[in-house]
Write a structure and sequence with these properties.
This protein has 358 residues and is of the alpha+beta class. Helix content is 27%, strand content 24%. It folds into three domains: 42 residues, no CATH class; 110 residues, 60s Ribosomal Protein L30, Chain: A (2-Layer Sandwich); 166 residues, PurM-like C-terminal domain (Phosphoribosyl-aminoimidazole Synthetase, Chain A, domain 2), CATH 3.90.650.10. α5 packs across α8. The longest helix has 18 residues. It is globular. Pfam families: AIRS (PF00586), AIRS_C (PF02769).
Length: 358
Protein backbone atom coordinates (compact mmCIF):
# COMPACT_ATOMS: atom_id res chain seq x y z
CA UNK A 1 0.00 0.00 0.00
CA UNK A 2 1.02 3.62 -0.42
CA UNK A 3 2.62 5.38 2.55
CA UNK A 4 1.43 8.96 2.01
CA UNK A 5 4.39 10.31 4.01
CA UNK A 6 7.01 8.66 1.87
CA UNK A 7 7.63 6.48 -1.18
CA UNK A 8 5.35 3.53 -1.92
CA UNK A 9 5.95 0.54 0.31
CA UNK A 10 6.44 -2.91 -1.17
CA UNK A 11 3.20 -4.50 -2.37
CA UNK A 12 2.35 -7.58 -0.32
CA UNK A 13 0.99 -10.12 -2.78
CA UNK A 14 0.11 -12.54 0.03
CA UNK A 15 -2.35 -10.01 1.41
CA UNK A 16 -4.48 -9.86 -1.72
CA UNK A 17 -8.04 -11.01 -1.25
CA UNK A 18 -8.42 -12.61 -4.71
CA UNK A 19 -6.32 -15.77 -5.01
CA UNK A 20 -6.30 -15.90 -8.82
CA UNK A 21 -4.61 -15.21 -11.07
CA UNK A 22 -2.16 -12.52 -10.00
CA UNK A 23 -0.78 -13.90 -6.75
CA UNK A 24 0.14 -17.12 -8.58
CA UNK A 25 1.82 -15.25 -11.45
CA UNK A 26 4.73 -12.93 -10.68
CA UNK A 27 4.85 -11.74 -14.31
CA UNK A 28 2.44 -10.13 -16.75
CA UNK A 29 0.72 -12.54 -19.14
CA UNK A 30 -1.41 -11.72 -22.19
CA UNK A 31 -4.64 -12.24 -20.26
CA UNK A 32 -3.91 -9.20 -18.11
CA UNK A 33 -4.69 -7.04 -21.14
CA UNK A 34 -7.85 -8.85 -22.13
CA UNK A 35 -10.47 -6.73 -20.38
CA UNK A 36 -11.68 -9.61 -18.22
CA UNK A 37 -11.15 -10.70 -14.62
CA UNK A 38 -7.35 -10.63 -14.91
CA UNK A 39 -7.39 -7.01 -16.09
CA UNK A 40 -9.67 -6.03 -13.22
CA UNK A 41 -7.46 -7.73 -10.66
CA UNK A 42 -4.36 -6.05 -12.07
CA UNK A 43 -6.01 -2.66 -11.55
CA UNK A 44 -7.51 -3.48 -8.16
CA UNK A 45 -4.49 -5.16 -6.60
CA UNK A 46 -1.51 -3.43 -8.24
CA UNK A 47 -2.31 -0.06 -9.79
CA UNK A 48 -4.84 1.33 -7.32
CA UNK A 49 -2.76 0.48 -4.21
CA UNK A 50 0.32 1.92 -5.92
CA UNK A 51 -1.48 5.13 -6.91
CA UNK A 52 -2.99 5.55 -3.45
CA UNK A 53 -4.93 8.76 -2.84
CA UNK A 54 -3.75 10.19 -6.17
CA UNK A 55 -6.26 7.93 -7.98
CA UNK A 56 -9.93 8.57 -8.51
CA UNK A 57 -12.17 5.70 -7.42
CA UNK A 58 -13.87 4.98 -10.73
CA UNK A 59 -11.61 3.68 -13.50
CA UNK A 60 -14.14 3.71 -16.33
CA UNK A 61 -13.59 4.17 -20.06
CA UNK A 62 -14.09 7.91 -19.56
CA UNK A 63 -13.89 10.18 -16.56
CA UNK A 64 -16.49 12.94 -16.18
CA UNK A 65 -15.04 16.15 -14.78
CA UNK A 66 -16.27 19.73 -14.37
CA UNK A 67 -13.85 22.49 -15.40
CA UNK A 68 -14.80 26.16 -15.57
CA UNK A 69 -18.48 25.25 -15.40
CA UNK A 70 -18.29 22.84 -18.36
CA UNK A 71 -18.89 19.11 -17.97
CA UNK A 72 -16.19 17.21 -19.82
CA UNK A 73 -15.53 13.57 -20.58
CA UNK A 74 -11.85 12.64 -20.69
CA UNK A 75 -10.41 9.33 -21.86
CA UNK A 76 -7.16 7.71 -22.93
CA UNK A 77 -6.49 4.47 -24.77
CA UNK A 78 -3.67 2.51 -26.38
CA UNK A 79 -3.85 0.34 -29.48
CA UNK A 80 -1.57 -2.62 -30.15
CA UNK A 81 -3.67 -4.69 -32.58
CA UNK A 82 -1.91 -7.42 -34.53
CA UNK A 83 -1.91 -7.25 -37.52
CA UNK A 84 -2.05 -3.46 -37.77
CA UNK A 85 -4.16 -3.71 -40.95
CA UNK A 86 -7.13 -6.06 -41.20
CA UNK A 87 -10.34 -6.44 -43.25
CA UNK A 88 -12.41 -3.30 -42.77
CA UNK A 89 -9.78 -1.12 -41.12
CA UNK A 90 -6.43 -0.64 -39.46
CA UNK A 91 -4.90 0.49 -36.19
CA UNK A 92 -5.40 4.06 -37.47
CA UNK A 93 -9.21 3.96 -37.72
CA UNK A 94 -9.34 1.89 -34.56
CA UNK A 95 -7.43 4.47 -32.54
CA UNK A 96 -9.69 7.35 -33.56
CA UNK A 97 -12.99 5.47 -33.43
CA UNK A 98 -12.18 3.70 -30.17
CA UNK A 99 -11.37 6.98 -28.44
CA UNK A 100 -14.44 8.71 -29.87
CA UNK A 101 -16.60 5.82 -28.67
CA UNK A 102 -15.25 5.92 -25.12
CA UNK A 103 -16.33 9.57 -24.96
CA UNK A 104 -19.68 8.82 -26.56
CA UNK A 105 -20.43 6.14 -23.96
CA UNK A 106 -20.48 8.93 -21.36
CA UNK A 107 -22.98 10.83 -23.51
CA UNK A 108 -20.31 13.31 -24.63
CA UNK A 109 -19.85 15.07 -27.94
CA UNK A 110 -16.22 14.26 -28.89
CA UNK A 111 -14.20 17.38 -29.64
CA UNK A 112 -10.40 16.90 -29.65
CA UNK A 113 -7.94 14.00 -29.63
CA UNK A 114 -4.24 13.57 -29.02
CA UNK A 115 -2.14 11.03 -30.90
CA UNK A 116 1.13 9.41 -29.85
CA UNK A 117 3.07 6.83 -31.87
CA UNK A 118 5.56 4.22 -30.70
CA UNK A 119 7.36 3.07 -33.84
CA UNK A 120 9.67 0.10 -34.17
CA UNK A 121 12.98 0.68 -35.90
CA UNK A 122 12.83 -0.78 -39.41
CA UNK A 123 9.10 -0.21 -39.96
CA UNK A 124 8.45 0.97 -43.51
CA UNK A 125 7.62 4.66 -43.82
CA UNK A 126 4.94 3.70 -46.35
CA UNK A 127 3.17 1.63 -43.67
CA UNK A 128 3.31 4.50 -41.19
CA UNK A 129 1.97 6.89 -43.83
CA UNK A 130 -1.02 4.65 -44.53
CA UNK A 131 -1.87 4.41 -40.83
CA UNK A 132 -1.51 8.17 -40.35
CA UNK A 133 -3.71 8.85 -43.38
CA UNK A 134 -6.33 6.45 -42.03
CA UNK A 135 -6.33 8.33 -38.73
CA UNK A 136 -6.79 11.65 -40.50
CA UNK A 137 -9.67 10.32 -42.57
CA UNK A 138 -11.33 8.78 -39.51
CA UNK A 139 -10.99 12.02 -37.55
CA UNK A 140 -12.58 14.03 -40.36
CA UNK A 141 -15.40 11.50 -40.56
CA UNK A 142 -16.00 11.71 -36.82
CA UNK A 143 -15.79 15.51 -36.77
CA UNK A 144 -12.92 15.68 -34.27
CA UNK A 145 -9.58 17.47 -34.37
CA UNK A 146 -6.18 15.87 -33.79
CA UNK A 147 -4.62 18.66 -31.77
CA UNK A 148 -1.41 17.34 -30.19
CA UNK A 149 0.81 14.29 -30.19
CA UNK A 150 4.18 12.61 -29.75
CA UNK A 151 6.48 10.14 -31.50
CA UNK A 152 8.94 7.66 -30.02
CA UNK A 153 11.09 5.02 -31.73
CA UNK A 154 12.18 1.75 -30.09
CA UNK A 155 14.90 -0.68 -31.16
CA UNK A 156 14.14 -3.32 -33.77
CA UNK A 157 12.66 -6.37 -32.08
CA UNK A 158 11.30 -4.34 -29.14
CA UNK A 159 8.00 -3.31 -30.71
CA UNK A 160 5.57 -4.57 -33.29
CA UNK A 161 5.63 -2.02 -36.09
CA UNK A 162 3.27 0.64 -34.78
CA UNK A 163 1.60 1.18 -31.42
CA UNK A 164 -0.74 4.14 -30.98
CA UNK A 165 -1.84 5.96 -27.84
CA UNK A 166 -4.70 8.46 -27.91
CA UNK A 167 -6.54 10.70 -25.48
CA UNK A 168 -9.80 12.53 -26.07
CA UNK A 169 -11.99 15.25 -24.60
CA UNK A 170 -15.72 15.70 -25.16
CA UNK A 171 -18.50 17.96 -23.92
CA UNK A 172 -21.49 16.61 -21.97
CA UNK A 173 -24.80 18.45 -22.15
CA UNK A 174 -26.75 19.33 -19.02
CA UNK A 175 -29.15 16.63 -17.92
CA UNK A 176 -27.13 13.75 -19.40
CA UNK A 177 -26.16 11.24 -16.72
CA UNK A 178 -24.91 7.99 -18.21
CA UNK A 179 -22.93 5.58 -16.04
CA UNK A 180 -23.05 1.89 -15.08
CA UNK A 181 -24.25 2.65 -11.54
CA UNK A 182 -27.61 3.76 -12.98
CA UNK A 183 -28.62 0.30 -14.24
CA UNK A 184 -31.70 -0.84 -12.33
CA UNK A 185 -34.11 -3.76 -12.25
CA UNK A 186 -36.63 -3.48 -15.06
CA UNK A 187 -34.27 -1.79 -17.53
CA UNK A 188 -34.29 -3.11 -21.08
CA UNK A 189 -30.88 -4.17 -22.45
CA UNK A 190 -30.34 -3.13 -26.07
CA UNK A 191 -27.54 -3.86 -28.53
CA UNK A 192 -27.00 -1.79 -31.67
CA UNK A 193 -26.28 -4.61 -34.11
CA UNK A 194 -24.53 -7.85 -35.01
CA UNK A 195 -21.78 -8.75 -32.57
CA UNK A 196 -18.33 -10.34 -32.93
CA UNK A 197 -17.36 -8.86 -36.30
CA UNK A 198 -14.14 -7.13 -35.23
CA UNK A 199 -12.68 -10.06 -33.34
CA UNK A 200 -13.34 -12.49 -36.19
CA UNK A 201 -11.99 -10.02 -38.78
CA UNK A 202 -8.70 -9.69 -36.89
CA UNK A 203 -8.50 -13.43 -36.26
CA UNK A 204 -9.00 -14.15 -39.96
CA UNK A 205 -5.68 -12.39 -40.70
CA UNK A 206 -3.69 -14.60 -38.35
CA UNK A 207 -2.08 -17.96 -39.03
CA UNK A 208 -3.62 -18.11 -42.53
CA UNK A 209 -7.12 -18.76 -41.21
CA UNK A 210 -9.87 -18.60 -43.80
CA UNK A 211 -13.59 -18.96 -43.21
CA UNK A 212 -14.79 -19.14 -46.81
CA UNK A 213 -15.89 -15.49 -46.73
CA UNK A 214 -14.44 -12.13 -45.70
CA UNK A 215 -15.60 -10.82 -42.35
CA UNK A 216 -14.90 -7.08 -42.00
CA UNK A 217 -14.34 -5.20 -38.77
CA UNK A 218 -17.25 -3.05 -37.59
CA UNK A 219 -14.96 -0.20 -36.45
CA UNK A 220 -17.00 3.02 -36.53
CA UNK A 221 -17.60 6.20 -34.48
CA UNK A 222 -20.78 5.83 -32.44
CA UNK A 223 -21.41 9.37 -31.17
CA UNK A 224 -23.94 10.08 -33.93
CA UNK A 225 -25.94 7.02 -32.94
CA UNK A 226 -25.79 8.08 -29.28
CA UNK A 227 -27.01 11.57 -30.22
CA UNK A 228 -29.98 10.05 -32.04
CA UNK A 229 -30.84 7.96 -28.98
CA UNK A 230 -30.63 10.94 -26.62
CA UNK A 231 -32.73 13.05 -29.02
CA UNK A 232 -35.71 10.79 -28.28
CA UNK A 233 -35.88 12.34 -24.82
CA UNK A 234 -35.46 8.94 -23.18
CA UNK A 235 -33.45 8.74 -19.97
CA UNK A 236 -30.57 6.52 -21.10
CA UNK A 237 -29.10 4.97 -17.96
CA UNK A 238 -26.01 3.13 -19.25
CA UNK A 239 -24.01 3.01 -22.47
CA UNK A 240 -20.98 0.83 -23.14
CA UNK A 241 -19.14 -0.34 -26.22
CA UNK A 242 -18.36 -4.05 -25.82
CA UNK A 243 -14.75 -4.16 -27.02
CA UNK A 244 -12.26 -6.46 -25.23
CA UNK A 245 -14.07 -9.44 -23.75
CA UNK A 246 -17.13 -8.72 -25.88
CA UNK A 247 -20.72 -8.41 -24.71
CA UNK A 248 -20.14 -10.92 -21.91
CA UNK A 249 -17.39 -8.89 -20.21
CA UNK A 250 -19.29 -5.62 -20.59
CA UNK A 251 -22.53 -6.95 -19.11
CA UNK A 252 -20.70 -8.60 -16.21
CA UNK A 253 -18.94 -5.34 -15.39
CA UNK A 254 -22.23 -3.41 -15.39
CA UNK A 255 -24.00 -6.07 -13.33
CA UNK A 256 -21.19 -6.00 -10.78
CA UNK A 257 -21.03 -2.22 -10.46
CA UNK A 258 -24.81 -1.73 -10.27
CA UNK A 259 -25.45 -4.92 -8.30
CA UNK A 260 -28.28 -6.00 -10.59
CA UNK A 261 -28.88 -9.27 -12.36
CA UNK A 262 -29.05 -9.42 -16.14
CA UNK A 263 -31.17 -11.96 -18.01
CA UNK A 264 -30.48 -12.41 -21.73
CA UNK A 265 -32.46 -14.13 -24.47
CA UNK A 266 -29.85 -15.74 -26.73
CA UNK A 267 -32.34 -16.06 -29.60
CA UNK A 268 -32.55 -12.27 -29.82
CA UNK A 269 -28.81 -11.55 -29.87
CA UNK A 270 -27.90 -10.55 -33.45
CA UNK A 271 -25.01 -12.60 -34.84
CA UNK A 272 -24.22 -12.75 -38.56
CA UNK A 273 -24.09 -16.22 -40.17
CA UNK A 274 -20.40 -15.65 -41.02
CA UNK A 275 -19.46 -14.88 -37.41
CA UNK A 276 -21.60 -17.74 -36.11
CA UNK A 277 -19.94 -20.19 -38.49
CA UNK A 278 -16.42 -18.94 -37.69
CA UNK A 279 -17.06 -19.14 -33.94
CA UNK A 280 -18.52 -22.63 -34.33
CA UNK A 281 -15.45 -23.74 -36.27
CA UNK A 282 -13.05 -22.37 -33.65
CA UNK A 283 -15.06 -23.22 -30.54
CA UNK A 284 -15.65 -19.56 -29.62
CA UNK A 285 -18.72 -17.95 -28.06
CA UNK A 286 -19.78 -14.79 -29.99
CA UNK A 287 -20.71 -13.16 -26.68
CA UNK A 288 -17.00 -13.06 -25.77
CA UNK A 289 -15.69 -11.82 -29.15
CA UNK A 290 -14.65 -8.17 -29.47
CA UNK A 291 -16.59 -5.40 -31.21
CA UNK A 292 -15.44 -1.93 -32.27
CA UNK A 293 -18.62 -0.40 -33.69
CA UNK A 294 -21.40 -1.61 -31.42
CA UNK A 295 -22.94 -0.32 -28.21
CA UNK A 296 -25.02 -1.72 -25.38
CA UNK A 297 -27.68 0.50 -23.80
CA UNK A 298 -29.73 0.20 -20.63
CA UNK A 299 -32.97 2.19 -20.74
CA UNK A 300 -36.23 2.11 -18.81
CA UNK A 301 -38.63 -0.49 -20.23
CA UNK A 302 -41.17 2.19 -21.20
CA UNK A 303 -38.53 3.96 -23.33
CA UNK A 304 -37.16 0.87 -25.05
CA UNK A 305 -39.31 0.89 -28.18
CA UNK A 306 -38.72 4.53 -29.09
CA UNK A 307 -34.99 4.21 -28.45
CA UNK A 308 -34.87 1.06 -30.60
CA UNK A 309 -36.75 2.86 -33.36
CA UNK A 310 -34.24 5.72 -33.29
CA UNK A 311 -31.35 3.26 -33.36
CA UNK A 312 -32.74 1.36 -36.32
CA UNK A 313 -33.17 4.57 -38.30
CA UNK A 314 -29.45 5.34 -37.91
CA UNK A 315 -26.94 3.73 -40.34
CA UNK A 316 -25.04 2.13 -37.43
CA UNK A 317 -28.11 0.74 -35.68
CA UNK A 318 -30.05 -1.01 -38.41
CA UNK A 319 -29.86 -4.39 -36.66
CA UNK A 320 -30.52 -3.12 -33.14
CA UNK A 321 -32.36 -5.50 -30.83
CA UNK A 322 -33.62 -5.75 -27.27
CA UNK A 323 -31.66 -8.74 -25.95
CA UNK A 324 -32.52 -8.86 -22.26
CA UNK A 325 -33.61 -7.17 -19.08
CA UNK A 326 -32.18 -6.16 -15.71
CA UNK A 327 -33.62 -8.14 -12.80
CA UNK A 328 -33.44 -7.97 -9.03
CA UNK A 329 -32.55 -11.66 -8.81
CA UNK A 330 -28.95 -12.94 -8.89
CA UNK A 331 -27.30 -9.49 -8.47
CA UNK A 332 -23.91 -9.22 -10.15
CA UNK A 333 -24.61 -12.20 -12.41
CA UNK A 334 -25.48 -12.50 -16.10
CA UNK A 335 -27.57 -15.47 -17.24
CA UNK A 336 -28.81 -16.39 -20.70
CA UNK A 337 -31.86 -18.34 -21.80
CA UNK A 338 -30.74 -20.63 -24.62
CA UNK A 339 -32.56 -21.51 -27.83
CA UNK A 340 -33.37 -24.91 -26.30
CA UNK A 341 -35.09 -23.33 -23.30
CA UNK A 342 -32.30 -23.93 -20.80
CA UNK A 343 -30.36 -21.35 -18.82
CA UNK A 344 -26.62 -20.81 -18.61
CA UNK A 345 -24.39 -18.45 -16.67
CA UNK A 346 -22.47 -15.98 -18.84
CA UNK A 347 -19.33 -15.50 -16.76
CA UNK A 348 -16.73 -12.75 -16.85
CA UNK A 349 -13.85 -14.14 -18.92
CA UNK A 350 -10.57 -14.57 -17.05
CA UNK A 351 -8.47 -13.14 -19.84
CA UNK A 352 -9.38 -12.92 -23.49
CA UNK A 353 -10.23 -15.48 -26.15
CA UNK A 354 -8.52 -13.39 -28.85
CA UNK A 355 -5.46 -11.41 -27.71
CA UNK A 356 -4.27 -8.19 -29.35
CA UNK A 357 -7.58 -7.24 -31.02
CA UNK A 358 -7.37 -3.50 -30.32
Amino acid sequence: MLDETGPPAAIDMDGWVCPMPLRDSPNIVMGHGGGGAMSGELIEHLFLPAFGSAAEAGFGDSAVVTLGGARLAFTTDSFVVKPMEFPGGSIGELAVNGTVNDLAMAGARPMVLSTAFILEEGTALADIARIAAAMGTAALGAGVKLVTGDTKVVDAGHGDGIYVNTAGIGLIDDGVDIRPQRARAGDAVLVSGEIGLHGVAVLSCREGLEFGTTVCSDTAPLHGLVAAMLATGADVHVLRDPTRGGVAATLNEIAGVAQVGISLDERKIPVSPQVRDACGLLGLDPLYVANEGKLIAFVAQEDAERVLEAMREHPLGGHAEAIGVCVAEHPGMVVARTALGGTRVVDLPAGEQLPRIC
